Amino acid sequence: MTDKQKAAPVGQLVTASKSFDDSYFNNIESKLSLFLNRLDGVKTNGSNKWLGKCPAHPDRSPSLGIKRADDRILIHCFAGCSVDAVLSAVGLDMADLFPDRVAIPGAPKPKAPRFSAYELFPLLIQEALILALAFHAVTSGDVLADTDMQRAEQAYNAVLRLNSEVKP
Ligand SMILES: [Zn+2]
Prior knowledge:
By secondary structure, the protein is an alpha+beta fold. The chain contains 5 helices and 4 strands, in the order ααββββααα.
C-alpha cells in the first residue's frame, strides 16, 4: 500500500453518493493499512485489533495498541506516548486516523480517539502480568536484568497511567 493509494479524493466521496458507504469505509481501511505498514512488529490481537512496537519510544516488546473502529482508528501507547507523538514518528497526523470528511466551517476539529476501559482491559492484564512476574522473581531472590527491570518499570507506569485514564 502506498501513499498514492491512501485515500479517495474528498470530492469523490461527496459526489458518488451511491457508493458513499463503500468509499467511506475503504478510506479508513486504507488509512489503517498505511499506519500499520509504518510500524514494526505488528501482530493481530483479535478482530480488528493489533499490537505493534511504538515508534515514539524505544520499544522492545510491542506496547502500542491499535484498533479499527468503523469510522476511526484508535491507538494507545502503554509507555505513555501521546497520539501526536506516535503519529509524527511515522510521518502521519490526526487526520490519518479518520476518514476524509468534507470540512464544515466552524466545526470543531476531531479529538484524538480514545479506547474505552473495556478495550484497554486485555492490555492492562498484559502489563499486570509483567509486573507480577517481576514481583515473583524479586521475592524469590532473583536479580532482574536491567532490560527486565526497565520493562517492569514501564509496566508500572502503564498501570498507573491507565488508572487515571479510565476515570470519568
Ligand atoms: Zn510509545
